[in-house]
Amino acid sequence: MNTIQLRQELIHRISRIEDLDFLNAIKTILDYNKKESFIELTADQEKELLVASKEAKKGNVISQSEMDRKVEEWLSEK
C-alpha cells in the first residue's frame, strides 16, 4: 500500500467513526505529530544561522519590504 492509498483508507475509516472520544484521541495524535516537526540542519546551515543571529543582535537588519525590493531588483537584472 502506498502513501496515497493509505491516506485514503484512513480517511474512509475515520469518516465512519462516531465515537467522539476515539476521534479526539486521533486528533491528539495528529496534533502531537504537528508539534514535533523540526528541520535538520547541516553544520554549515547552523553556522550561517549563528552568524545571522549575531548580526541581528548588533542591529544589522533590514525590513522584509526592503528585502523584497532587493530581491525584485536582483531578479530583474537577469
Topology:
Layout: H1 3-15, H2 20-35, H3 43-57, H4 64-76
Short description:
It contains four helices and no strands. It has helices at residues 3-15, 20-35, 43-57, 64-76.
Structure write-up:
By secondary structure, the protein is an all-alpha fold. It has 2 domains: 3-35; 43-76, no CATH class. 73% of the residues lie in helices and 0% in strands. It is elongated. The protein starts with a helix and ends with a helix.
Structural class: mainly alpha
Order of helices and strands: HHHH
Tell me about the biggest sheet? none
Percentage of residues in helical conformation: over 70%
Shape descriptor = elongated
Instruction: Tell me the distance between the termini.
Output: 46 Å
- Estimate the mean pLDDT confidence: 89
* Poorly predicted segments: none
Number of helices: 4
Number of domains: 2
The counted number of beta strands is 0
Radius of gyration: 22 Å
Strand percentage lies at under 5%
Question: What attributes does this structure have?
Answer:
78 residues; single chain; mainly alpha
